[in-house]
Write a structure and sequence with these properties.
Elements (H helix, E strand, L loop, with lengths): L2 H9 L2 E2 L1 E4 L5 E4 L1 E2 L6 E5 L3 H7 L1 H11 L2 E5 L2 H10 L14 H14 L4 H12 L3 H7 L18 H16 L6 E5 L5 H10 L2 E6 L2 H13 L6 E5 L9 E7 L10 H11 E14 L8 H7 L8 H8 L5 E8 L2 H15 L1 H7 L2 H19 L3 E9 L10 H22 L1
Parallel strand pairs: 1-4, 2-5, 7-8, 7-10, 8-9, 10-11
Antiparallel strand pairs: 2-3, 5-6, 11-13, 12-13
Length: 418
């Protein structure tokens, strides 16, 4: 029996997964399961050994290069089937790396996550300075490139992203005249939403030159460029004080070596009554390492933190953790929506780049999606305050604020329909 057959026999009990080897032989693994789509893959010469050596990077590169072909199902179906057989909470560990590989990757991880300011800008450009057209093809119109908030799993992506903004802004407990800092502002959607809903003045900062251009253009077109400003600056170089800080989807790029620096800087930037809301992908378990595919092709310098690592980052800084929320399946739903839109835009993406890029991007979205549906990833929303008295002592204000914001969105949609 080939090594990959031995590997799959241990890893796949539910399926079925059918493998056509380069010599024409066929093997099937797993019993039919109504919750999983059957998948058939064809492995060309060299693919099997590459996957056995490194399942994550090997499978990704074989798929990107056409050495792994899907004859039944698509790449999402394949990754979902394999990970559903090895769900994080079940702790089967079949797909986990060996202790030796974990030790080697841990050393590489510590070196690679040391994000000095110059490297941070380069790492951000690698991903976020891709073609505007690409992001338009799979994101919502506001270009919210982070976990949406699904009050109902059947909601549209647009509805879920609008609800995400309302959910976060309600937690900020904004009052008239406040100044807000948006660290990692993306294309400006959150900053513009905050000003539109609350009247607060907002400064958004980014390391992406392409995102900066779009954000500034949007503020100018909305006639609020004097109230919603955007700057190309590293958070470590920023000065001033703000009543509120919000950071959505940026902390994954900070790197563990700089968690203390990040929280210390936020403490410095907040007024004595200041509050911050940090929204980040996180590990449900303890610290780990970034997989090789993500590091090489998607987010160089990126790392997803464990909650314990985040806590160590702000311990001793005299800040109160006033609220912690764990969003479990929300990003899985978000990524599936992005994946489906990407698949629908196959021809446009191939025209922008090529087939290999399209395969890389779909592998990234599908792999990320199943990491939330079956793996050990979640989203954390961590609220911190410098003062014990800055916020109400119950969470009622969050629900009331969110309902008011969402109600306003619903009224606006009704006016558009009329």
């Amino acid at each position: 029996m080939a090594l990959i057959d031995q590997f799959l026999a241990r890893a796949v009990k539910r399926g079925p997964l059918t493998v056509i080897h380069s010599n024409g032989s066929t093997r099937s693994f797993g019993e039919p399961d109504p919750g999983l789509k059957p998948v058939t893959i064809r492995l060309h010469r060299g693919a099997a050994s590459a996957i056995v050596r490194d399942p994550s990077l090997g499978a990704a590169e074989c798929y990107m290069d056409g050495r792994l072909e899907l004859e039944q199902g698509d790449i999402f179906d394949l990754l979902n089937l394999v990970t559903a057989n090895n769900r994080w909470e079940e702790g089967t560990g079949t797909l986990n790396p060996t202790p030796l590989r974990r030790a080697v990757e841990a050393v590489t991880h510590r070196i690679g996550r040391y994000n000095m300011a110059r490297r941070s800008k380069r790492n951000v450009a690698h991903h976020y300075d891709l073609s505007d057209r690409l992001y338009d093809l799979f994101l919502d119109a506001d270009r919210q490139y982070s976990c949406a908030y699904y009050t109902d799993p059947s909601n549209s992506l647009e509805q879920a992203q609008a609800d995400k903004k309302a959910h976060i802004v309600a937690k900020l407990a904004l009052e008239p005249g406040m100044k807000v800092l948006d660290i990692g502002c993306g294309w400006g959607g959150m900053a513009l939403y905050i000003h539109a809903k609350t009247g607060a003045e907002v400064l958004g900062i980014t390391l992406s030159e392409e995102q900066l251009k779009v954000a500034r253009r949007r503020a100018a077109e909305a006639g609020v460029a004097d109230k919603v400003r955007f700057e190309l600056i590293d958070y470590r170089a920023l000065e001033g004080q703000f009543d509120r800080i919000v950071s959505v989807g940026m902390f994954e790029h900070v790197g563990p070596a700089f968690y203390r620096t990040f929280f210390r800087k936020c403490h410095q930037l907040l007024t004595p009554e200041g509050v911050m809301l940090l929204h980040t992908i996180g590990r449900a378990g303890g610290p780990g390492v970034t997989d090789k595919f993500t590091m090489k092709y998607i987010f160089p310098g990126g790392y997803i933190p464990a909650l314990s690592e985040m806590v160590r980052g702000y311990e001793g800084l005299r800040m109160f953790a006033t609220d912690v929320e764990v969003l479990r399946l929300h990003y899985g739903y978000t990524l599936k929506a992005w994946y489906d839109r990407t698949v629908a835009a196959h021809d446009q993406i191939v025209e922008l780049y090529d087939e290999r890029f399209y395969r890389m991007w779909t592998f990234y979205l599908a792999g990320s999606c199943v990491s939330f549906l079956n793996g050990g990833l979640v989203n954390y929303q961590l609220q911190l305050s410098r003062s014990r008295d800055a916020l109400p002592i119950t969470r009622d204000y969050m629900l009331e604020g969110e309902q008011a914001l969402r109600g306003g969105e619903a009224e606006a949609r009704e006016r558009l329909r009329a």
